[in-house]
Amino acid sequence: MKTLRLEVDADGIAVITLDAADKPMNVVSPQFIDEMIAAIERIAGDATIKGAIITSGKPAFMAGADLKYILGIAGGALTHKQAYAFSQKPSVQMHRRLETCGKPFVAAINGLALGGGYELALACHHRVIVDDPKAVVGLPEVTVGLLPGSGGTQRLARMIGLEKAASLLLDGRSVPPAEALQLGMVDQVVPESQLLATARRWLQGAPGAVRDWDVKGYRSSNGLLNPAVVKVMSERPAQIAAQTRRNYPAPIAILDCLFQGMLLPFDKALQIESKHFARLLCDPVARNLIRTSFVNRGEAGKLARRPRDVAKSAVTRLGVLGAGMMGSGIAYVAARAGIEVVLLDSSLELAEKGKQYSAKLLDKAVERGKRSRASADAILARIKPTTSYEHLAGCELIIEAVFEDVAVKADVTKRAEAVLDNSAILASNTSTLPIGRLAEASSRPAQFIGLHFFSPVDRMPLVEVIVGARTSQETIAKSLDLVAQLRMTPIVVNDSRGFYTSRVFQTFIHEGMRMLEEGIEPARIENAAIAAGFPVGPLALLDEVTIELPWKIVQEAEAALGADFVRPCAYDVMRRMLHEIKRPGRKHGGGFYEYPAGAAKHLWPGLSAAFPPARKQPAAEEIGNRLLYIQAIETARCLEEGVITHPADADVGALLGWGFPAWTGGPLSLIETVGLERFVAEAERMASAYGARFAPSDWLRARAEQGETFYEAALPRTAAA
Which residue is catalytic, options 95, 276, 452, 510? Predict the structure, then answer.
């Protein structure tokens, strides 16, 4: 067997050791299910075997499903009937058979047990877990758009009560051993040295092998007359709708599964669970979440775009030019990663102020018990504020994060390079200025690259790595190695004005302003954006970044491109808000919103006079689709033009960079979810109604006609995928 070992000792106790070959963690795969079913049948059919222990030969017990395999069959690759059968095999033939075979099973949980791993433990008659805070248990399937499909919802609710089970299932929360014992998720917590001995003693005590719900006359405490059940079922649907805006089907399916399952005999309840699981597995939302938020993000974190023929590197000394918000944030994450940081600004006062940004974050971490004082002090000591470029000597990499001005950036580039080793790399944190243009100031353009961080750096995990026309493969590799050191997620894009993230993000805020100019009520715009899944509406977002920023970007582009420049659809709104109405944004006292002292912000009442609302208002769905489609269309253009070279980078960048709705999987996944042919037709309708900016390119039309998607239709359907 390749996923487990079965051994029987002289006392008649079988030990199943989960130990998948060639995998760092045990995962639920078709091969594992087949081998576990065979092991259960052997134990059930051998009269000399008194019971069984299930444990792991790896540091973790079991991590759950093989997500790459699940991705290959999610989102429509299977019919509902096939998906139901897929769920029933582990649910009935494996877990239910284990539970009812007449032999007692005990799970000796030596490390984390999540998803299908914890479902296996739930199916056992007893659960012993090691006393280690990292040995968490839980059912996080909701985070990937699914629900536990092998009896997890039904066993957990019957063991700990529906109210507690609903909370854990809907949050997808992992629980450490002490809390798991308190909740009733496990039966014993013991030191690691006593784990197997404790499991063995339980079996030697001749325990029963029948679960409570299989005893004749069993009545669940989760009935309709239970006040806790009434509370959950009356309040949770509204809470879920408010949280998910009905864009995520899994939470409601979980709740329905619990409600129906508690009213039925256990085997019928398992059928209900499998039916819900099948529906979710066939839904594109699960595919989108798994593909972008887990598989592709994981691949990006493993540096999937890194040139393979360059030796791995590490930065020990980093220079940061500019101690403003971005520079200070970069200095903090670098120092936190163990890197010595030289933080340079035009005055020592500004440089020290930049260091204080890290000091405040570290103080908060200490106050919350997330870091010791000694650890915080050590991190802070790595940041060296200075005004002298001479102190940059010995830095392997420099990140300039100064004002978005070509001349200013050129000056600091030349001054830094004058003291750097020949092998050092200089990176710009610019968000829009072309790297090729900035590299003109460098004496070593092959070692010049863009590293675009997002604010606030300590909370935004994305780094957009921008490759210039003359950037070397070695520079790309070393820059990606730095991103990995910082424990952040990179996407790699090619040089262009606005690159990828800024270019597409601007279409979101411009479209919001354009709709305001068209007479769409501002509250309707904001609420429709949130209903579509965006964290905030475009007008609220603009107030935070200030209209000055997109206006400056437009002015710079217009000056550079001249007659070739096409003004964005919100040009007049920006001009009026800045120069006539004089409300640039929050930091200037107000923009589209008012910010009264001691009260919640609200839309500025003067908007109705400045931009009179039309008599007829569009549906919220139409507004939301405009915001989604305009970004998807621009993303497709970026792929067509080679700014983005892989659809995964586009989708991961959108979710992590500016909060594109996760249920879509990203702009390109959205197009695939809608269907290319239907998307193109809808885009053409919007182009006729709202302007040529919605018109799909000939390239996108051709893909739609040929049925050519952005991703492969499916990954190989094997456990090794």
Answer: 452
